[in-house]
Design goal:
Chain lengths: 352, 352, 352, 352
């Protein structure tokens, strides 16, 4: 039985992973660590877990937390937490899965670019681990994830955009300067931290673009697409927040220099993802919406072409808290511990 | 492996049961029957099922439907469908689980009262089965359900009200003429049939009481509570529809003739449900909402007393499509086929 | 032109009154006072007001705030703010309209009961004004409001319950110990203060009862209904919060000792409110919902009788921020300043 | 007093115009015509209008409808209704305002292109009126609307896109083949006609792109932008539907061939709209969302530039039923009848 310790257990990412692990046949939770609500049972805070996970929330310094056995330690923490603790975890023989930006980049330069862009200290605290880490998007880095001691779980927007454009980038179908990512997210993407803009009355029946001056996810997307393309991809990214709880819909545009039929584009995408059980590819007439992927680990891609102007258009649907966070995390944990990639994840959503 | 055939597979009740059965370790679907979309794969209509259930939708007369093996045939159909076909099913050696009002009553008189109240033909078409059937609320009729050839799955409002008041009725805590059931439901309770009042723009940011002149669920609730009480219980029932998709919250009031502390009331409820794994009982300070039970088979009961006037007040929370429909159905199927009651159902919800 | 100064201008109550006053033909805003965002224009914080109200937000001590002319000073502030400042306002020749509980009661004893019930200091700071003040529900206290120097605007739940039961209380139709108020509110009723329970993801697709141990609105409702009845009315009150922004639906039950037809009940209600232009009375078949009153000053009452048990049932619909707050406030300002009661308020809502 | 007759009075467009006209100081409704609910009062169907508009719904052939005086007859009807009746209306001396695509194009060729694109008969039934008609977007065609006997009210998506890009097109800031319109709409944009995809449970917590193969609004947008540009503009248009009731947010992208600062872009837009009171222009840091324009006639434009790739990005916010339909309609009626453009329309929204 694989043991998982969760640091930052009371945020949305932590809760999502707890929910998944209580249903997992080969993994179990060894300890929950958080800074708030220490001493309470997790099911006092989240009564839906009553009877499923009644573990106490421990302080990081609590010996029960320190000594809990772990094959994988998950940092469901903000930027610049995991990087300070990863070394100790590795020294104890466990692997590290980090939800923040700390281990999404494999060079100090790439990290510095990312950190600078959203106003963080550009100096990485564990540079010796960069290069040994893997970017935790299994569809692109399956083998690296299996081998790496440290994995950086992808950002939710980034996950949807990269999966949506990777096949076309790999095939060099488009002009690498022409990419536009128009992304729409439900409110849970911002986490559980209170903010005036996410107060229910302010958000109900309201939608808006935000952070128009720049968004940290751009780095991840450009880096991964550039890797696929073999040349620098540069894109315009717009984030919008909408009155749903869960779900990301990213509409992705790229200019092609010649005609391509929708059928051929669909075929190319299906071939690219033929070994990736959580990606489903559809043509433009399929009735796909975020409700097809909600509360699941699937990414549904709708492929179309605006033939009048040879523009490729992909609509990428994920659940931001599942494929965009806890689901990808469990997929990574499975890979990191030698379990089947889909274990504990192969469920449909529920309709309606 | 238990075989289940579903008649009326494309409604919310049918879909919900399909979703559960695709995850069930000991049961599987043998055929899907419906009147619409015949010939299509179910996953063409509901793409979230892609890869989980890709069975074709069959016409009732299709030999593949007729000949499909079945331990249980589920009628997820409107009133007065199952009663005409139940006999044939039994003759083939299968059991019947019906989602409508057809088999919720065990006498012709009780059925006639129910049918009359909502404008249906009061004559039951299979009177020879009444008395052999069981009311499919496992918490009150577990043994009868195991034995009965025909089970009538409860109505969603009725389920929430009966579970909320049965312990107090059984203990004769209240005046049997004083009961008020103030029930609030999400919109999915009305099913997938289109109606102007459930058109999204009309329902968004709107709530209202409806059917103030009478509601068919009253019969079920009065009958079951009277059975528990040993005397006629008569109640006022108000249904309200609110802009959620899933969830029922029923606030239940009953006048007691003497003081009772909340602690004693909670203890009495916990004792009553001590062998019922899907009922959780809380005092008035627990932070329970419909999100604690959403997409699960749980019924969460919050027990309180207005001590100034000796009024018992129970708030009963269920998911109308799970404990109120497909979840109870699977619980019944488990019991009817000798499987453990909780098999395939013991999952927490997902937050948020 | 009537001058209105608003203290606490940036909360929902203040904003609502600003919106109404920008459309009022005979009144205008002389100053906006608040503790947050001092120095900014109100339309920087609330861009929907751009071009309609661009006044600066002033500190209470700012001379521009102190010296702004005012016929009425509105305290859209929490409990125990207005009571300390009302005397000064009156000394300057203005009238006071207070949104909190400070001036909803006319005796020190009644205030102490209210304050105690929700954990506030029971000693009123301006006892010399109690008895001179009026309860600001125009439908019941029109003449007193015109004459009083200080008016206490009603609570939103209280407004819906009192309007719903006053005619029946006045006619002594029911047992005064039998009343149940089952109230459902949208989230804006809790104001703009952030709280985990009103964070969008936590509230979406979620409903719950709260404060089951007691709610401060009970005092107001019992006091006003007792006045109408001429005898003590005692009631059970349950508050529920639902995922809407605006709207209160209160379902009110009271036991009658003899039969009364719905027609007679409707007639009695219409007679009672025949001079109240903002109350509309309907029978049980009218398709009324909160969307009929949204963003308006109307209270729509649906009157029905459960004839099987002689129980009166009223469903009362208001917009909690309009008739439940800013709309009633403007209605009171009109009365206090000798303007027609409906001025600036006689608008329909918008559908859908 | 201007008289307005409304054909198709019971759809969302008709109701919206009724609501506005009941508040208009210089215009009134002379007759309401529809095919459904004939003989009922409009306020029986829409109780929020009770006391504001209680006119009967008339059949088109009813003499009261035929003989009702009218300065303007509004066709709030589907395509290919108004074109058959416009001639008669003009012959009686009234003007025509049509909500469909019938009079949005000024040549038979342009109409045929539009009609073909969404599967309608390409032959216009009143070709003699084409060329005399005006496109009813006041910000671009104010003088033409004043003079034209027939005005075609714009489509809601088109309105948001054209207002968002007209200044940049007029200034020839961008490559005319590079435009992308990524549009998001609330559900009311689809009108009151029932459809499975707009059933509340199917739409709640769901978002999707639709009509990926083409959308009729493209014609209008390309035509108007080409007129501003003086050269053919060709664009990719994607429509998305989201779980709100009202609101359109269109994110518009266009490739510039040289750098332009956000400040200069904002200045250019403000200059372009300096005489248009319903357009407000903001820089990228302003906290604008659809709630700033909801239930109002405003279009709020947020102007930004992705300087890394010289891409212009405009986010255009309107209420699809107001500036996108009934509000623009009243603005047009004011212009067509010589009234001030803003009469009856200059109101802020209500928050929250």
């Amino acid at each position: 039985m694989i043991k998982v310790k969760i640091i930052g257990a009371t945020g949305y990412g932590g809760i999502g992973l707890i929910e998944l692990l209580t249903q997992h046949p080969e993994a179990e939770i060894s300890a929950l660590v958080a800074r708030e609500d220490v001493g309470k049972r997790i099911s006092e805070i989240y009564p839906h877990l009553e009877g499923f996970c009644d573990l106490p929330i421990l302080d990081a310094e609590d010996p029960r937390a320190q000594e809990a056995p772990a094959d994988v330690v998950v940092f469901s923490t903000p930027d610049r937490v995991g990087m300070y603790q990863a070394g100790d975890v590795l020294a104890k023989g466990a692997k590290v899965l980090d939800f923040s930006g700390d281990f999404r980049f494999t060079t100090q330069e790439a990290y510095a670019d990312y950190a600078t862009r959203h106003g963080k200290d550009p100096v990485h605290a564990a540079p010796e681990l960069l290069g040994k880490n893997a970017y935790g998007l299994a569809e692109l880095h399956r083998e690296a994830i299996k081998a790496a001691p440290v994995v950086g779980n992808p950002g939710c927007f980034a996950c949807s955009c990269i999966l949506g454009l990777a096949p076309a980038a790999h095939a060099r179908l488009f002009d690498p300067l022409s990419v536009i990512c128009d992304c729409k997210t439900g409110v849970s993407g911002a986490g559980k931290k209170l903010a005036a803009t996410f107060h229910y009355p302010a958000r109900y029946e309201n939608m808006n673009a935000y952070k128009l001056a720049g968004h940290q996810h751009v780095c991840e997307v450009e880096r991964e697409l550039s890797l696929q393309y073999g040349q620098d991809v540069r894109l315009t990214f717009t984030a919008h927040v909408l009155p749903l709880c869960r779900g990301i819909m990213s509409t992705l545009y790229a200019q092609m220099d010649k005609a391509l039929s929708e059928e051929d584009a669909v075929a190319l995408y299906r071939e690219f993802y033929k070994d990736s059980p959580f990606v489903r590819v559809y043509g433009s007439k399929a009735p796909i919406g975020t409700n097809c992927v909600q509360r699941t680990n699937f990414c549904d891609l709708v492929v179309s072409v605006d033939a009048r102007v040879n523009r490729l258009r992909i609509v990428s649907y994920i659940d931001n808290l599942m494929k965009g966070q806890a689901g990808s995390a469990l997929q990574n944990i499975n890979l990191m511990t030698g379990l089947p990639e889909t274990l504990g994840l192969m469920r449909s959503g529920m309709y309606p």
